[in-house]
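Key result, reporting period 2: structure in, sequence out.
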């Protein structure tokens, strides 16, 4: 276990605690067990290390990665039991989905070690309601997305803008202190601001690796797929990247990657959970109901730029940003007359010359425009929607 403490201390020394992601203060750390899930690269590990550094003592706290070599011949539960018997109170487990049988052993920890708090991170594909043990009643699951435009401003430029609600935005309360012209910063965000590692010199290569690992390792590992199926996922991602946003024809997509239409629907759902694509659905009736998919988008603009190789469509970029940012706090559905609908409000997204025709019949309609610095009337500056988390 000494190796694990050494590993934790090295990680704590290297963590930057100058800025907290939006999920940091939303988590109820009083829970005996909880899960923080999200796509690769959005900062889950950093958030855990910040929490340990700021609120815990290494005397009763241990951080481990489930892919550490220690677990080649030790079990997660065995570690937790030994840690607990020696006075341990807080166990942070990173990348729990890398450990086979993770849900069964987490359930055993919860039931057998009542004084131990267990916090874990995992892929957003991870489903705590299914698998070998149902953890839904024991461990609330928090989903963390990539950075908003607001968070990008704080992390990359030290500019701290207030967090606004949709009502604030529609009332034109957006502001970025000390920034007179937000558009150049916004353009940079669209290319490399969604991921915390976006300022790395090799960002394009690193993001490409995130995409490949997600499709060829994370999803197949969780879903019990073969390596050949992982390659089909990558092929499907390549097709989606050339078409998005598009209304999916499952039969046509299936024939292109040589699988059934039902498999395509499953693959897209896995890819959506993993943060690779986003599916815009109709406003289905019923609590939590999933409507019919109207359009498939790439998940965020950074992935869009990475896969387009210079051929990105600016209209696609704008819609992708809108959908990506708004879905964090709202249910975004397809509009029958325009692009998007949120809580009875209709939104048409376009450039600075976009007209009002699309929303003429809308009871509450707004035109969201790129390339403008200020909102006015029912016209909303696109960049302002990045200040909502």
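The corresponding designed sequence is given below.
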């Amino acid at each position: 276990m000494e190796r694990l403490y050494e590993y934790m201390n090295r990680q704590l020394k290297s963590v930057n605690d100058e800025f907290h992601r939006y999920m940091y203060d939303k988590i109820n750390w009083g829970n005996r067990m909880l899960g923080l899930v999200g796509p690769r690269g959005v900062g889950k590990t950093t958030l855990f290390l910040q929490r340990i550094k700021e609120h815990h003592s290494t005397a009763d706290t241990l951080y481990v990665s489930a892919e550490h070599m220690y677990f080649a011949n030790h079990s997660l539960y065995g570690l937790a039991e030994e840690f607990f018997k020696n006075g341990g109170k807080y166990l942070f487990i990173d990348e729990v989905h890398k450990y086979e049988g993770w849900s069964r052993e987490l359930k055993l920890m919860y039931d057998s070690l009542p004084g131990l708090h267990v916090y874990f991170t995992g892929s957003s594909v991870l489903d705590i309601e299914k698998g070998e043990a149902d953890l839904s009643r024991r461990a609330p699951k928090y989903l963390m997305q990539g950075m908003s435009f607001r968070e990008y401003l704080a992390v990359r430029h030290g500019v701290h803008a207030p967090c606004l609600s949709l009502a604030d935005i529609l009332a034109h309360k957006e502001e970025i202190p000390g920034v007179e012209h937000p558009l150049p910063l916004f353009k940079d965000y669209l290319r490399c601001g969604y991921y915390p590692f976006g300022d790395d010199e090799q960002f394009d290569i690193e993001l490409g690796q995130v995409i490949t690992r997600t499709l060829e390792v994370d999803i197949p590992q969780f879903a019990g797929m073969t390596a050949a199926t992982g390659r089909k996922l990558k092929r499907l991602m390549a097709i989606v990247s050339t078409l998005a946003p598009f209304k999916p024809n499952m039969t046509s997509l299936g024939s292109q990657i040589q699988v059934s239409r039902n498999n395509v629907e499953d693959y897209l759902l896995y890819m959506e959970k993993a943060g690779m694509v986003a599916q815009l659905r109709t406003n289905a009736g019923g609590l939590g109901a999933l409507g019919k998919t109207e359009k498939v988008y790439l998940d965020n603009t950074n992935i869009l730029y990475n896969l387009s190789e210079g051929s990105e469509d600016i209209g696609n970029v704008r819609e992708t940003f809108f959908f990506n940012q708004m879905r964090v706090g709202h249910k975004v559905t397809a509009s029958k007359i325009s692009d998007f609908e949120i809580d009875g409000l209709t939104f048409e997204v376009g450039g600075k010359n976009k007209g009002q025709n699309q929303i003429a019949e809308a009871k509450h309609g707004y035109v969201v425009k790129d390339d403008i610095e200020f909102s006015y009337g029912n016209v909303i500056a696109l960049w302002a929607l990045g200040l909502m988390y």
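The first strand starts at residue 33 and ends at 38. The chain has a mean pLDDT of 94. This case is discussed further under Risks and Mitigation.
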